[in-house]
């Protein structure tokens, strides 16, 4: 079997917050990337009996994996988005898959111990008993039915059919108690589900790692609720997803690690495995390490359990007014690859325009053995200092900049600096999807960002992550990643800035 599995543990000088490495400051986490058994015709309504029969097949696998995780000492286990029921339902055809999930903030309920309290809650009962039987915290994703009006938002306008249907995370304590319910806020072409009237900031407490926050898939690209959780000092985040990979900037593991590094948090991220939809890539990420799995073409299409020992991150000091305390590290590192390091303005190089991820980037080719290159898209500029490790490399590379509103399959404002391997030897191929590379470089990539929300990533050949040697943020908005001695050929190095405040302009 061929699987890409990597464990990286590299200290980042500019990221702080890990507790002392005493036995009580670590916990064991597990995520299970699940090859979901799908309803072959999800648009056709089925009976509750048939829906349960379908879901029990996936829950049978969950049972096996929960037992395996417990045997390896896991204290918390996370399953992916849509892993129990699948996807591509209509609003009507998902009806028999729905269960009404009580709000744990309003009602204390252990479905395993009190199964008769609520009707039609077979899935909740089985998940609860799974957590209890294996003595671990458990997070899963399932669809929720709530009557109108919502207790949490009584003045909100009801959907036309008079009920709410939500894409939902549920969390259970190790004794089976339902402790959290989160409704996904940023839907991605989900006709069967509603957007909740207000973003929900949902957390739950554990005795081994303190507070965990919940969000789902497309939420990771938006301010609410994801950044709100971080602003409130939540350092452990749980991220079930059904993520369709898109290179060169938004492969699953690439952005999972980028978010962990950029937000300075632990992320328990778990994806579906579905080769037809290019879904794979899960991991357990801290600002210091990554334990992950990413299947590649030709690998057996099967699930994967990851278990890792994770340091407990202490909550940061929260500033008055609800803002988070941010990392501020001067970028005067004295790091360059030129004979003269007095930091002169980089020379001007010819630029060209090419589409990457449906956005119009301005690029400069990297044709020298080493260089200091600046590229701008409007007033937003990126700078790259680089040196090839082998001077006779044969692949084409470029550094690009983009600042603007992304509008395909979602609308969000970006500032991005990226070094990419081009798909071929013509500049028109720069920005295409590439999985493999042979060329290696030492580099420093820097951008002058108008946002503090910048997510760094380094992706190398065959979809292997590398941890930047340093990530540095300065008060003036400069963000820098430095890396050398790349182990694999460079596919992408990226600083992905999110301009949340411009999303609706």
From TrEMBL:
PANTHER family: BIOTINIDASE, BIOTINIDASE-RELATED. It catalyses: biocytin + H2O = biotin + L-lysine. It comes from Haplochromis burtoni (Burton's mouthbrooder). Residues 1-17 form the signal peptide. Its EC number is 3.5.1.12. It is an enzyme of class 3 (hydrolase). It comes from the Eukaryota. The active site is at 81 (proton acceptor), 184 (proton donor), 217 (nucleophile). Belongs to the carbon-nitrogen hydrolase superfamily. BTD/VNN family. Keywords: Glycoprotein, Hydrolase, Signal. Residues 36-312 form the CN hydrolase domain. This is Biotinidase. One of its GO terms (molecular function) is biotinidase activity. Catalytic release of biotin from biocytin, the product of biotin-dependent carboxylases degradation.
